[in-house]
Structure formats: structure tokens, C-alpha cells
Design goal:
heterodimer, A: 231 residues, mainly alpha, 84% helix, B: alpha+beta, Arc Repressor Mutant, subunit A, two-stranded antiparallel sheet, 4 helices, elongated
């Protein structure tokens, strides 16, 4: 076994969750992996590292961490309810305009267009806003807390996608539905991450170091502008 | 004493493992030493969680060591017990010994 070929994604995950000497921890795991410990052992260590980090953060900043997770977990069903409500209003108006005897293929086309033009982008946007606030509430480790929020999103969407796969597999008409749902899930997750990145960029711009760097840059500009005028 | 001033069993075992290993005390040998002496498997991340708490309390110091190809070029972190750490170990031993002495049926056996 080669330490350079650790199971994919695990080093990245460990860097995200371990705030204390992450590289040494990864090195220790890599050394043991290279000395013959199995892949199952390695994955167990990674899972334990993630769990340890969560327990540590709950112990250190319990209320804020749990508050951020609760916001994420509560926000998902609210978003789903909001989208369903908007969808009901839309279909109600659609029926009023076109009547209830629209052909099925036209109904399906409208459904598809609305899914991609309205419902999915709106859901991704809402998840982005929630992701931003989740990262805002728990600033010590925003990536970890948004990672947990992403897990909530996946837990809320993937069972439905799986159900679509199982139900629609027999009917060739609907076979693209689960694939579309998977793509929409990816967009929702991307929305949540973008929201978190947005918050992190705001936070990093307001750190004392960033403010000092900006001031130095501004001063340099002023001096160079002055020099240019003097020549 | 503060709320978390006492060493947990895991922290005490980590400190003792560092002492036993001397200059070779980094994550892998520490976890192996605890496994060998206590007979139970320990997670490497659990060792690091204990090391972080001990370092924050000034009971150990850390120093970056060499990187090896086995580790994918990542440096080892070596740990040493400080004087404060030694004092904590002795205090824990005293507390355990005192508690041990008063228990009927355990007297005469070393802790």
C-alpha cells in the first residue's frame, strides 16, 4: 500500500475537520496505512476523526454549533414547504387560465420548464441564504457546520431520488426524472456551499490582518500617486 | 482548581505513553503504546484530541520533526511532557492510590 494513494477525498476531509495539527494526523494515518492497516481501518479512523471533531466543537461552543445545525435542519423543510406552496399557487393559476383539461404532454413540459427555471434555482438560492447564515452563526469552523447542513440536504433529497429511481425505472417516459433530481440536488448543495463561501469571504475580509493589509495597500497607493504627481 | 483541571484516564495514559517513549513520542508510537499496555484499540484522532487539550494546558510541548516517504512527505510532530505535566501525573497517581487504599477487597493490591 502506498501512502501517496490514500483513499480519495479523505485527506481533504481530515484537513477540513481537524483544526489541530491536521497534517501530522494525516501523516500518522498514512504511515499506519502504508504499514499494512486496511482500507476499512483507514475509513474508520477518518469517521472517528470527524465524530471527534464534532464532539469537541459541541463541547467548546455547544449552543452556537447546535444552533447553526438546528437552523440548517429547520430551514430545509421550510424551504420545501415554501416551494410546494408556490408550486400549488402556480398550478392553481395555470388551471384557471388554461382550464383543467390540458393535454398530459403539455402539462409535463410546463412541469419540466418550471422545475429548471423556477423551483430548482429558487431552492438553490434559499439553501445558499441558509448556508450563509449557518456559517455566520458558527464562525469558528464554518466549513464543518455547512458540511453538516449539506448532509441534512442530502438526507432530505436522496431518499426521494432513490424512490424515483425505483418507481420510474420501469416506465421509459419518466426515466430521466431521477437523473434530473440528482442534478437538482447537486445544485442545491452547490448553493449551500456558495452561501457559506460568501460568508467566509466576508469574515476573512474583516479580520484584523486583512484590514491592516488593506490599509498598507491604500497607503502605498497614496504614496505612489503622490510620487507620480511630483515627477 | 478549575472545572477541567483533573486529567481524564485517556489524557493520563497519553502522558504516560509520551514519557515511556521519550524522544520517539509522536502519534503512531503513542497510539501503539497505549494499545499495547492497555489492551484496547485507540483512535489516532482520539489521541490528537487528548494531545490538543494537554498542549493547551501546558502539560506537553510539541516540536515538528522529519518527514518520511511513508507519511507522504508529511512531518511528524514529537511531544514532550513539561514539568507541569509531570506534576499532574504525580498528583493523579496520588489521588488514585489514596482512593485505592480505602476500598475493601482491593487493599494489598497495587493500582
Amino acid at each position: 500500500m502506498n501512502a501517496h494513494r490514500l483513499p480519495p477525498g479523505t485527506s481533504w476531509l481530515l484537513r477540513q475537520v481537524s483544526s489541530y495539527r491536521a497534517e501530522s494526523l494525516i501523516g500518522d494515518l498514512a504511515e499506519q496505512y502504508a504499514s499494512g492497516r486496511g482500507t476499512a481501518w483507514y475509513y474508520r479512523q477518518v469517521i472517528l476523526a470527524v465524530a471527534t471533531c464534532h464532539v469537541r466543537l459541541v463541547r467548546l461552543h455547544g449552543v452556537r454549533f447546535l444552533g447553526a445545525i438546528a437552523l440548517g435542519a429547520g430551514g430545509v423543510p421550510l424551504c420545501i414547504a415554501l416551494i410546494e406552496w408556490l408550486s400549488d399557487i402556480f398550478w392553481h393559476h395555470e388551471m384557471l387560465i388554461f382550464g383543467s383539461n390540458l393535454p398530459e404532454n403539455r402539462l409535463r413540459t410546463i412541469d419540466l420548464v418550471m422545475f429548471w427555471v423556477a423551483w430548482t434555482p429558487l431552492t438553490a438560492l434559499l439553501y445558499g441564504i441558509i448556508g450563509r447564515f449557518v456559517a455566520h452563526i458558527y464562525r469558528p469552523h464554518p466549513k464543518l457546520v455547512v458540511g453538516s447542513f449539506v448532509c441534512v440536504i442530502l438526507a432530505s433529497r436522496l431518499p426521494w431520488t432513490l424512490k424515483l429511481f425505483l418507481v420510474d425505472l420501469d416506465d421509459s417516459q419518466y426515466v430521466s426524472y431521477p437523473v434530473q433530481d440528482l442534478v437538482a440536488t447537486f445544485l442545491c448543495v452547490a448553493g449551500a456551499w456558495c452561501g457559506a463561501l460568501w460568508q467566509m469571504s466576508i469574515d476573512s475580509a474583516s479580520t484584523p490582518r486583512a484590514v491592516a493589509q488593506r490599509r498598507t495597500r491604500d497607503n502605498t497607493h497614496t504614496i505612489s500617486d503622490f510620487d507620480g504627481e511630483g515627477r | 482548581m478549575g472545572k477541567n483541571s483533573h486529567l481524564s484516564t485517556h489524557e493520563l495514559m497519553t502522558l504516560l505513553a509520551i514519557l515511556r517513549l521519550g524522544k520517539e513520542a509522536y502519534g503512531v508510537p503513542i497510539s501503539r503504546e497505549i494499545e499495547a499496555q492497555s489492551g484496547r484499540e485507540v483512535a489516532v484522532s482520539g489521541i490528537y484530541a487528548a494531545l490538543e487539550r494537554l498542549e493547551n494546558r501546558g502539560l506537553i510541548t510539541a516540536e515538528l520533526g522529519e518527514a518520511t516517504p511513508q507519511r507522504g512527505g508529511r512531518a511528524k510532530t514529537y511531544f514532550r511532557v513539561t514539568a507541569a505535566g509531570l506534576r499532574e501525573i504525580h498528583a493523579a497517581k496520588r489521588a488514585f492510590t489514596n482512593l485505592w487504599r480505602g476500598v475493601p477487597g482491593l487493599e494489598g493490591r497495587s493500582p
